[in-house]
Specification:
There is one protein chain. The protein is built from 19 helices and 33 strands. It has a seven-stranded mixed sheet with strand order 4-6-2-13-10-11-12. A five-stranded mixed sheet has the order 1-27-21-22-23. A five-stranded mixed sheet has the order 8-16-15-14-9, with helices on both faces. It has three domains: about 140 residues, Aldehyde oxidase/xanthine dehydrogenase, molybdopterin binding domain (Aldehyde Oxidoreductase, domain 4); about 180 residues, Aldehyde oxidase/xanthine dehydrogenase, molybdopterin binding domain (Aldehyde Oxidoreductase, domain 4); about 350 residues, Aldehyde Oxidoreductase, domain 4, CATH 3.30.365.10. A hairpin with a 2-residue loop joins strand 25 and strand 26. It is an alpha+beta fold. Bound molecules: dioxothiomolybdenum(VI) ion. The site of dioxothiomolybdenum(VI) ion (MOS) has 10 residues, from loops.
């Protein structure tokens, strides 16, 4: 079905199942270890061999010689696959071009071989016997240096890199209050729990991979293209995924090398990237340098606004578009933004939870705190008076729903913001300096076309099949809820099957579009199935009611299983979004409030309290949505206080490439967290009237922490993460 602006009242409005607090329907499987993740899928590919990935030991240059004979004769080794003997690969696609290198090396730990052996240990031992000689070339690893030669990148997802309106330079020069500050955000690692892992098995010329991936259709297409196979001959299966955060949007070395290894060894092969390989072999969130200039009048209104961003990537890689979030966030007639991309020889940068907007808000929402203080306004009040209901760059474009002011005011009330002392360093609790900070959360709510197949069996059970993935987000449950609501059955009569390229192509998990899009696809398929039921009963579809498993129309009341008959009854459809993006901006909003304590002597920072108030349309499953926000807040604390992939600027790699040295928050770092949703619906975005939540929660959190640290200490750190040494230096 085509969705155009509004579906009006529909069956999801009943909210008998949708919108109700619902535990994960696959939760018991996961808690009891019965949900099989890619690396443990034993029964499907019995007795697989093990592939060990060898990574390049230089960051840039060439392999001059590679002697694999030692590995080939090593105990248990079945095959060694390199670029030399892998067979022809189509490397025309940037996302897969680098998954098997040789002779050119583009980044450190880029895969140069997979060693296949009977056991993991034998494969690893074999890898140590490969002799590689390199001719290393100098590379550029320092963004501060590369920035000087950064260029304007092409538009991405329809967003031009630059924007301008009014006269920024004139307005900035004339502004009575102004700030001009530069901020640094480092590279971040996705650090998801489940590593990149795959099993590949060939049957003749057909390939099946069990992998950990967010976008099944993209993976199938990329694998088929790279291996020069028709897509129908490639099956991708990924029913359970232990986190992705964007790192698993595209295929990585594990799955391609498992496929090549399995072809060479003539048996199924499983490959997992060991944790210490992940940071440099795969992808990361690129570092940014951002300059923000803001001018404001005596009334506190923003009169001049400029946000410039510099990021870097491998040649051909995308830009970390950190200015998108701020472009339309606050009012003001005179404005400019720009994004510049530099070429770096570090591993590939790519999407990580709220790409662009997460680092963008880390800088920009500190800048707002700085200008509010200059003007002498409370930072909540400053944001309220600079709210806009239209895109300030294109005033004809309105927000579908924008309730930032309600988020800020509700949060301020609940958090006790009025007790904040505006004077930095003024509140002390024993040896702890205490501060409060606030920031806006803001993230686009896109939709993607999404398909599903729904079937009623003679037992009356409803089966939903779609290639949508559940990366820990709760897709199984909200898809089940949607089918239960639409088909008039209790949730425990619905079976949800996900993550298989044999199922209809869905939106997949990314860009916080997954929940809204995939459920809308199920909605469309359910509407079709209801029509099929009505036809079978010989009644008009709009007179059909289904409740508690019985179809009712006029004097007829028939159990769904009976309507379906022994053959069952099924329907397939997809939602095609035709929302008018020119007219409406679909965005989610929130306000983050943070209380920190900073030790007066050691400068240790402890987050003491956090609150997020979010607006994201209809909330399909409140505990799952809350879980997304809480997780994202935790990730934001990591970005504020500890996370940084440290670049060795001489050798060109991320030094702290394991979880012993790449620090992420643990339970003890995280205090009381609260998340409140404004109850609402957005009828113009989708028939589900929901927006997305997965990425909203991280945007702004780190700045709220930084602003709280400033309020506690009077120390303004503009270089993340805010570590003890920086606080002591400031
Ligand atoms: Mo997301 S960073 O598009 O998985």
């Amino acid at each position: 079905m085509k969705f155009t602006q509004t579906e009006g009242k529909n069956r999801t409005d009943r909210q008998k199942v949708i919108g109700k607090a619902t535990p994960r329907i696959e939760g018991a499987l996961k808690a009891t270890g019965k949900a099989t993740y890619a690396y443990e899928w034993h029964d499907i590919a019995p007795k697989p061999a093990f592939g060990y990935v060898l990574g390049a030991a230089i960051a840039k240059g060439r392999i001059t010689s590679m002697d694999t004979s030692g590995a080939e004769s090593s105990a248990g080794v079945l095959a060694v696959v390199t670029a030399e003997n892998a067979g022809p690969l189509d490397k025309g696609n940037f996302n897969v071009v680098k998954l098997l290198a040789g002779p050119e090396i583009q980044h450190y730990h880029q895969a140069i071989a997979v060693i296949v052996a009977r056991t993991f240990e034998e494969a690893r031992a074999g890898a140590t016997k490969i002799k590689v000689r390199y001719a290393s070339e100098p590379g550029v690893y320092d963004l501060e240096v590369a920035k000087e030669t950064a260029v304007k990148p092409p538009a991405r997802w329809g967003n031009e890199p630059d924007s301008a309106a009014g006269d920024f330079a004139g307005a900035f020069a004339a502004a009575p209050f102004k700030i001009d500050a530069t901020y640094h955000t480092p590279a971040h690692s996705h650090a998801m729990m489940e590593p990149f892992a795959s099993i590949a098995a060939w049957k003749g010329d057909e390939l099946t991979v069990w992998t950990a991936n967010q976008m099944i259709a993209w993976s199938r297409a990329d694998l088929a293209k790279t291996l020069k196979m028709p897509p129908e001959k490639v099956r991708v299966v990924s029913p359970y995924v232990g986190g992705g955060f964007g790192g698993k949007l595209w295929i990585r070395a594990d799955v391609l090398l498992a496929a090549l290894g399995a072809r060479a060894a003539k048996r199924p092969v499983k490959v997992a990237l060991p944790r210490p390989m992940m940071a440099n072999n795969t992808v990361h969130r690129p570092a940014t340098i951002q300059r923000v200039r803001l001018g404001a009048g005596k009334d506190g209104k923003i009169t001049a606004f400029a946000h410039e961003n510099w990021a870097g990537n491998q040649k051909g890689g995308s830009t970390e578009t950190a200015t998108l979030a701020s472009r339309a966030l606050y009012a003001g007639a005179n404005r400019m933004t720009s994004n510049r991309n530099a070429t770096l020889d570090l591993p590939e940068g790519n999407a990580m939870r709220a790409p662009g907007d997460a680092p963008g808000s880390m800088a920009f929402e500190i800048a707002i705190d700085e200008i509010a203080e200059k003007v002498g306004l409370d930072p909540v009040e400053f944001r309220v008076i600079n709210d806009t209901q239209v895109n300030p760059e294109k005033p004809a474009q309105t927000y579908s729903t924008r309730k930032l002011i309600q988020c800020l005011k509700t949060g301020a009330e609940k958090f006790g913001w009025s007790k904040r002392n505006a004077k930095p360093g003024a509140v002390r609790d024993g040896n702890w300096l205490v501060g409060l900070g606030v920031a806006t959360a803001y993230r686009g709510a896109p939709t993607m076309n999404s398909g599903a197949r729904v079937r009623i069996e003679s037992s009356g059970r409803v089966i939903v099949e779609t290639d949508m993935t559940d990366i820990g987000t709760g897709s199984y449950t909200i898809i089940g809820q949607t089918a239960a609501e639409m088909m008039g059955v209790p949730l425990d009569r619905v079976d949800v099957r996900l993550g298989d390229s044999n199922f209809p192509v869905s939106a997949g998990s990314g860009g916080q579009f997954g929940a809204v899009s995939a459920t809308s696809g199920v909605y469309a398929a359910c509407l079709k199935l209801r029509e099929a039921i009505a036809t079978k009963l010989g009644v008009a579809a709009d007179t059909l009611e289904i409740d508690d498993g019985f179809a009712v129309a006029g004097s007829k009341r028939v159990a769904l299983g009976e309507v379906a008959g022994t053959e069952g009854l099924s329907a397939e459809d997809k939602i095609e979004f035709a929302t008018d993006r020119e007219k409406h901006l679909h965005y989610t909003f929130g306000a983050h409030f943070v209380e920190v304590g900073v030790h007066a002597i050691t400068s240790e920072v402890r987050v003491r309290r956090m609150l997020a108030v979010c607006h994201a349309g209809r909330i399909l499953n409140p505990p799952a949505a809350r879980n997304q926000i809480i997780g994202a807040m935790t990730m934001g604390v990591g970005a504020a206080l500890m996370e940084e992939l440290v670049v060795d600027k001489k050798v060109g790699f991320f030094v702290n490439h394991d979880l012993a040295s790449y620090e992420v928050p643990v339970h003890a770092d995280i205090p009381h967290q609260e998340c409140v949703f404004l109850d609402d619906e957005d009828p113009t975005v989708s028939p589900m009237k929901a927006l997305g939540v997965g990425e909203l929660g991280i945007c702004g959190v780190s700045a709220a922490v930084a602003n709280a640290v400033y309020n506690a200490t009077g120390k303004r750190v503009r270089d993340y993460p805010i570590t003890i040494d920086k606080l002591m230096r400031t």
